[in-house]
Amino acid sequence: MNDYHNRRGFLKKSAITTLASLVGTKIMFAENIPARVTPLPLLSDSVDGKDPEMTVLSDRPMNMEAPAHLLDDPVTPINKMFIRNNGLPPVKESIDRSAWTLTIDGESVKQKRTYTISELKQRFKPHTYQLVLECGGNGRSGYYPPASGNQWSQGAVHCAAWTGIRLKDILADVGLKDNAVYIGYYGKDIHLSRDAKKVVISRGVPIKKALEDETLIAWAVNGDDIPLFHGAPLRLVIGGWPASVSGKWLHTISVRNIVHDGPKMGGSSYRVPVIPVQPGEKVEETEENFRIIESMPVKSLITHPKSGAVLSSNRSLSVRGHAWAGDLEVTEVNVSIDYGCTWQKANLSAPKNRLAWQQWSAKIDFPQNGYYEIWVKATDSKGVSQPMVMPQWNPKGYLNNACHRIAVKVVV
Amino acid sequence: MNVRRVTLAVAAFFVIAMGITCVSDLRNDQTTTDTTATTSLVDTLNYDPHSGLVVDTTLGLVVANCSGCHSTELIRKSRFTRDGWIAKIRWMQKEQNLWDLGKNEKSILDYLEKYYSPSSLDARAQMRREPLDDIQWYDYQ
């Protein structure tokens, strides 16, 4: 524990902070770290393997996101997955996969049960699903007046292949009472104040969402053990909802007879005003004024080409990306090169499984040379599509699903 | 179809024209106060290489009280009014074990308000989607 804290203390003065202040928001990790310092190993396994183009928003707690073009793969590789940590991950050396246990307790279980990871693997059937996890605050930097929290651009989202057991299988084994309302998770992360008694974050979902087939207790991502920064050795994975419901470093799930009331469930955390408010309006943080965010809204990204493409040999261009819609499916994707005056329908693939993102592609023919923006807009199975302008402002800047766009110059 | 296109284009033209008028009105209001002041302020600021925060006589206090738990990036990326900063500090005191800042609170707030308030953002904020900036052009093959 102390070892870890010393390391963090050292990191504070390290080149990362210095670099961050010199280059602004973007830290091109690998290339830019001077040779005399070796901060990467101190940042632990998954972080030092991250793609050098990842953007670090904060190194303590660690928050990093992917520029859109890094997310081109249908299944996001680990080194391109965003990190949103609310506290500090548990000390790597303290994580013993063979000794780690998961306890199911709470008012609404018939009896409390504890399982080791190998028991989970033996007793229950494993499943693998590709699931979209998106930070509730993804896109926050697009809100004005500025909303508090990490100023995410659009890359706090990924869709990886998670392997684990269904939460519903383990809950059936434990036995639920009829009065179950919600589940809440507890993880072993460390509060930023180092107060061992303080829970960093403990959120959850209504029992109906918890019992869906795709709600997993996972130990592997893309076929490998989950890396430290993504929740090793065990985590919840609940696609389509703010990623903060997918608790990391999971040791306990409480089945509650009330809406779970752990840290970051209340106030304005992961909540939006019930009534639309004027941008910047003060909203008193009461239960009646705010509602918990559930399914994330429809959204899409252009992942190829990277913004800034200069076309000098050909006036046509193949573009592609992903689209997703929380609990729903995307039924249509359109692209525009004239700021939304006209739209061209893109090809759209079916999702690999429920709650996975879908791939879209289109071939664009530019009418003449010049500067263009390519905008993409997805529509979900209820006919709801993305706004081109800033969506409904809210105090914490959640749910910004405004259309993504890239710049292209044609100079044939 | 063609008629519709034309109608759309005309409508779009009016919307854009109105938008430009509104935006320039807002801008003109602001230029005399916030924007100019900010520009000259920003130009002359020094940044501390370790914390990335603006150098000022209060910097030491801010670093001492505000960098123990998280990196100063969180402050650098934030823009709140004085009331907003007070609310943030109260929230951290209530929920996150931040201590009572005592008589230093006023100086810290003065500092945060001066360098990290919404008015120190430029006029980009007046538009609902600003033009793309920071485009790094590259040859597309």
From TrEMBL, chain A:
Cofactor(s) required, per the database record: Mo-molybdopterin
Domain Oxidoreductase molybdopterin-binding: 91-260
Boundaries of every Moybdenum cofactor oxidoreductase dimerisation domain copy: 292-410
GO terms of biological process kind: sulfur compound metabolic process
InterPro entries assigned to the protein according to its UniProt record, in alphabetical order: Ig_E-set, MoCF_OxRdtse_dimer, Mopterin_OxRdtase_euk, OxRdtase_Mopterin-bd_dom, OxRdtase_Mopterin-bd_sf, TAT_signal
Residue spans crossing the bilayer: none
UniProt KW keywords: Metal-binding, Molybdenum, Oxidoreductase
Keyword match Oxidoreductase: yes
Pfam families, per the entry: Mo-co_dimer, Oxidored_molyb
GO molecular function terms noted in the UniProt entry: heme binding; molybdenum ion binding; molybdopterin cofactor binding; sulfite oxidase activity
Protein name: Sulfite dehydrogenase (Cytochrome) subunit SorA apoprotein
Lineage, top ranks: Bacteria, Pseudomonadati, Bacteroidota, Sphingobacteriia, Sphingobacteriales
TrEMBL record, chain B:
Gene3D superfamilies noted in UniProt: Cytochrome c-like domain
Keyword Plastid belongs to the record: no
Domain of life: Bacteria
Keywords of the record: Signal
Protein name per Swiss-Prot or TrEMBL: Sulfite dehydrogenase (Cytochrome) subunit SorB
Signal peptide: 1-23
Example GO molecular function: electron transfer activity
Keyword match RNA-binding: no
